[in-house]
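Ticket #4471: structure export looks truncated?
Reporter: QA, pipeline team
Priority: medium

Steps to reproduce: submit the single chain below to the structure queue and open the exported record.
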Amino acid sequence: MHFRTVPQAVWDTSMLLTGGFSLWRGGWAERTAAFGMIADSVASAVLQNRQNWDAPQWGDFAVDLAYLLLLVGVALKSDRLWPLWAAGFQLVAVVIYFARIVDMTSGPLAPYRGVVIWGYLILISIAVGTWQRWRNHRLRPSPPAAGSAMHRHS
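Actual output as written to the record:
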């Protein structure tokens, strides 16, 4: 069994709740971003260099860069505002990794501490986007049914 700390368990629970909420009430953009985040988290855990924490974490960097590209793609195809925020937060996370790779004198845990902050902000962006989409669809009036009086007279 893989050892998980309390903060890791809180992160995992937050991701799964956000993913579940986006699956239940979100559209393609919310689902894509949420499940991309889950895939990013799993791939990062698998690809981490646990033998040398001081070395650049190339696997994490590549995975987070791929997730950034996914979020940018969602932001470009979506008519929603929240993907821009999520992509911006992920860009900061990638820049922190890049800074660590360029300047090895910075602390080896800096990318991980930064990713925690930006990761939660991305989850919040996805959750807010999902909630807004759900709210907007609930408030939108339904089109009249075929054969109704309103439809026949138009």
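Status: closed, not a bug. The export was complete when the record was re-opened. Leaving a note from the reviewer for reference: Residues 110-139 form the longest helix (30 residues).
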